[in-house]
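Morning F.,

Quick status update on the modeling queue. The single chain you submitted on Monday has been processed. Sequence for confirmation:
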Amino acid sequence: MADTDNAAGTAADEAKRNADFAANQAKSGADQAANFAKGATDRMRDAGQKAQSAFQERVMEPAQRAGQAMREGGQKIAENNQQIGVKLIDQAEQNTAEAFAAMRKAAEAKDLSDVMRIQGEYLREQSQRSMAQAREIGELIVSFGRDAVGAMRSGAGGPRTGGE
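Structure tokens below.
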């Protein structure tokens, strides 16, 4: 009976060793799978952070700079339009004053030839004044256009990276 107990004990020890070995193998496999999964997760997180950083650098920041430049350009255009409007009112006021001055002179004229001379002078001066005023407004518009385009270019452009 001792041999039977001894054989059963040996079989039990062998079964325990086999079970321990299988458990260690399973634990080792699970640890390897967990380490692999952790490594894959870390790589995916790093790739996501790189993609987010690249998106921020290449898309968001230039878009924000362009938006800011457009806002600034729009504000500049509004200011410039206001200046042009004031300049046009000033010119209209000057033209009206000149027209009334010519009408006064014509009303005080002694004869028809004097009236014709006054009208001729007024028309000649008004023609010159209109051309000068148109040139002045044109120069303002060109200057404002250059300023607005320059502001948009300097704001929207930025350092480019990545061999573009």
